[in-house]
Write a structure and sequence with these properties.
The strands form 2 sheets. A 7-stranded mixed sheet has the order 3-2-1-4-5-10-11, with helices on both faces. Strands 7-8-6-9 form a 4-stranded parallel sheet, sandwiched between helices. Strand 10 and strand 11 form a beta hairpin. It has about 325 residues and is of the alpha/beta class. The chain has 2 domains: about 180 residues, 3-Layer(aba) Sandwich (Rossmann fold), CATH 3.40.50.450; about 120 residues, Phosphofructokinase domain (Rossmann fold). The chain has 11 helices and 11 strands. Helix 3 crosses helix 4. It binds adenosine-5'-triphosphate. Adenosine-5'-triphosphate binds next to helix 4.
């Protein structure tokens, strides 16, 4: 193997830079050249590229975002766009390709592998932690730490004013950021997209709330059934007119920031094993880490279904928050 290509694709996630660094350093140690393409599949189609060297990835392990930038590319999903991407890969004479991204990016990676014949490996890069075949995705740990820190700050002001805060967190169809940060932040309730009836449960639960603790934090995943924290806030203000209810949407702050120690280490391992996978002639697979061991999962299985939420964790949150 002499030369490989690399993109970051879909939503950005802290730790992507650590993964890029690991891929480049591992490849260069084996004398493999690495071509990076800017802005995901869009940059591949446009041949917007850069030769990545050991020194070009210096001093990035601690930085959020991605030095290769990222984008969503509608053109790549057309037959013409895919053919153009394959032509660029052939022009560069690439022997392998690595995609750091989420489920959409891996659907694209599977198309690339099928139609180009090139070996393609994926590194799970999304704050949502919604891929099958890995205990965590790059970005998730930093995002939940960011949310936990925000909850702590909101709790200070909520406690001072005896307020209820309805806090919206990211996660699209997955409530994992909501659940994990709710446990860490001592939140009183969560509303998540994986199940219905959370609002009714919350209204019922209020009857048993401890009177001594006036501040409440309610974590709402962005795509729960009523459409998010703003809508939930409106409903609660009607239901509980005597209470002081505030809504905070954390938004893109959850995507930024310096990656946590755990994130950097995991992203580094994943990047290292992605290069090793290509060297072992693996293709059409995502690198994951399960129970501290590397695991390769075919793209179609990694994106197949929603990662199941452990019902025991929801129960634990309920018990601990009463
Ligand atoms: P995140 O989970 O952070 O949103 P993602 O990788 O799921 O990341 P998407 O926007 O879903 O982000 O996908 C990224 C890109 O992958 C798309 O812009 C598109 O170019 C490509 N892609 C997505 N789905 C497909 C598909 N079914 N076939 C080919 N390419 C796809």
């Amino acid at each position: 193997m002499k030369k490989i290509g690399l993109i970051t694709s879909g939503g950005d996630a802290p730790g992507m830079n650590a993964c890029i660094r690991a891929i480049v350093r591992t490849a260069r140690a084996e004398d493999i050249e690495v071509v990076g393409f800017y802005r995901g599949y869009e940059g591949l189609i446009n041949n917007d590229s850069v030769m990545l060297t050991k020194s070009s990835v210096s001093n990035i392990i601690q930085r959020g975002g991605t030095i290769l930038k990222t984008a969503r590319s509608a053109r790549f999903q057309t037959p013409e766009g895919l053919q153009q991407a394959i032509a660029v890969i052939q022009q560069h004479q690439l022997d392998g390709f690595i995609v750091i991204g989420g489920d959409g990016s891996f659907r694209g990676a599977a198309e690339l592998a099928k139609n180009s014949g090139i070996k393609v490996i994926g590194c799970p890069g999304t704050i949502d932690n919604d891929l099958v075949g890995t205990d965590f995705t790059i970005g998730y740990d930093t995002a939940i730490n960011t949310v936990t820190e925000a909850i702590d700050k909101l709790r200070d002001t909520a406690e001072s004013h005896d307020r209820i805060f309805v806090v919206e967190v990211m996660g699209r169809d997955a409530g994992l950021i909501a659940l994990r940060s709710a446990i860490a932040g001592g939140a009183e309730a969560i509303l998540i997209p994986e199940r219905t009836g959370d609002l009714e449960r919350l209204l019922e639960k209020k009857k048993n709330w401890r009177k001594s603790k006036k501040s409440k934090i309610i974590i709402v995943a962005e795509r729960e059934e009523h459409g998010g924290a703003v809508e939930i806030g409106k409903i609660l203000k009607k239901e509980w007119p005597d209470l002081d209810i505030r809504v905070t949407v954390l938004g893109h702050i959850q995507r930024g920031g310096s990656p946590t120690c755990m994130e950097r280490v995991n992203a580094s391992l994943i990047g290292y094993y992605a290069v090793k996978a290509l060297q072992q002639n693996r293709t059409n697979e995502m690198v994951g880490i399960v129970n501290k061991m590397v695991r390769y999962t075919p793209f179609q299985d990694a994106v197949k279904h929603l990662v199941e939420m452990n019902p025991e964790m929801i129960k634990i949150l309920e018990v601990l928050s009463m």
